[in-house]
Amino acid sequence: MPRGLFITLEGLDGSGKSTQIKRLAAWMLKRGITPLVTRQPGGTVTGDHIRELLLGSRSAGLAPMAEMALMFADRAQAIAEVINPALATGRTVLCDRFTDSTEAYQGGGRQLGSDVVLELHRLICGNLQPDLTLLLLPSLTASLERARRRNDRATAANGIDESRFEREQDAFHERVWQKYREIAQRDADRVVAIEGDLGIDDVHEQIVDAVAMRLTAAHNQ
Q: Phi/psi at 36 (nearest 5 deg)?
């Protein structure tokens, strides 16, 4: 059986990934494709525990290397438990974040550099690469404002606090944003960057155009 298609969505918190991955999954379902939708950190029982540690503000003193190690522990579990089994059966996997996020946030934001991230990805993740990465890059200001409003609403509604990264200084998020752009330029064959403060429908149209092209290419192989 042919391997399934592995598609990731990337971008700053507040860039619209959650909305767009839901819309992409619905678009696929209408075309007879039933994707497996997952996220990182999280997506497994173990990963959900790690997510709470990584994103909760009570982990404010987490060292950068410990933070990165937890990201890869979550990812290794997700690959073994969710992603690889689905791909092996020919299913399309849509994943909200993957190693590009670690390179951007820990490599760029925490200034650990790209080399250590990519080497850990090779060692821990078997160098598994997405077939297509959709990178949402609205303006930094717009992303942060949306993320902080969303986290405030979630905390007020259900007590879930995932605001640790949003509490970082703007300089941290600027480094993350710039690292994402660097990744897009370096891996242009894999990464489709959708830039600017576009409407939800406009972003969705660009996403489905990119995915349709990749699906056609996979079908013709």
A: -95, 120
- Of 140, 136, 138, 139, nearest to 192 (Cα)? 136
CA distance 184 to 188: 5
Specify burial of residue 88 (Cβ count, 10 A radius: 0-12, 13-18, 19+): exposed
Q: Phi and psi for 155 in degrees, rounded to 5? A: -65, -40
Which domains can be identified in the chain, with CATH numbers?
Answer: 6-220 (3.40.50.300)
Give the pLDDT confidence of 88-132 residue by residue, as tens digits: 999 999 999 999 999 999 999 999 999 999 999 999 999 999 999
Give strand ranges (E) for the chain. 6-11, 36-39, 93-96, 132-137, 191-195
Q: Is 9 helix (H, G, I), strand (E, B) or coil?
A: strand
pLDDT in tens, 16-70: 999 999 999 999 999 999 999 999 999 999 999 999 999 988 888 899 999 999 9
Strands 132-137, 93-96: pairing kind: unpaired
Alpha-carbon gap, residue 52 to 46, rounded angstroms: 10
CA distance 219 to 42: 30
Rounded Cα distance between 46 and 51, Å, is 9
| 46 exposure class (CB count in 10 Å sphere: 0-12, 13-18, 19+) | middle
